[in-house]
Amino acid sequence: MSPMKSKNCKINQLDANGKETGLWREYYGNGKLRYEGNYIAGKQIGLWRGYYGNGKLWYEGNYIAGKATGLWRGYYDNGKLMYEGNYINGLKHGIWKEGKIRRTKNGKNILH
Question: How far is it, in rounded angstroms, from Cα 74 to Cα 89?
Fold first, then answer.
C-alpha cells in the first residue's frame, strides 16, 4: 500500500533535527483534505496532491529534494484540466498548456 494511502502511518512528524519527515497532510476548516505529500529531511519528495474545499483534485505533481519535477497538472473544481506541463529542477520546462477551456465544434476541449 502506498504511504499516501496508508491509514496506519503517522502524519505531520518532525525528525530529530526538527525538519518535516514522512507523510504530511493539511485540512480545511470543514475537515476536507487540502493537500498531502511526503517529506524527507524537510524537503518535499514524491507525489503531492492538492484539493479544493469540496474535495475535488486541484493539482498533482512530483518533487525531488524539494524541487518540482516532471509532469504537473492542475484542474478546475469541475474536474476539467486547467494546466499541464513539466518541471525540471523546480523550473517550468517546455510547452505548458494553460488557460480557459473552450469547446470546439467537433466537441474537443482545448485550452486557450
Answer: 19
3 DSSP assignment: T
Whether 44 and 37 have beta carbons less than 8 Å apart is answered as yes
CATH topology of domain 13-111: 2.20.110
d(CA 12, CA 33): 13
Q: Which amino acid, one-letter code, is at 91?
A: L
Q: Where are the domains of the chain?
A: 13-111
Average pLDDT, the chain: 87
Query: Mean of the pLDDT values across residues 78-101?
Result: 90
Task: Report whether 111 contacts 96 (CB < 8 A).
Answer: no
Whole-angstrom distance, CA of residue 109 vs CA of residue 27: 32
Total-model pTM: 0.79
> Cell 529542477 appears where?
89
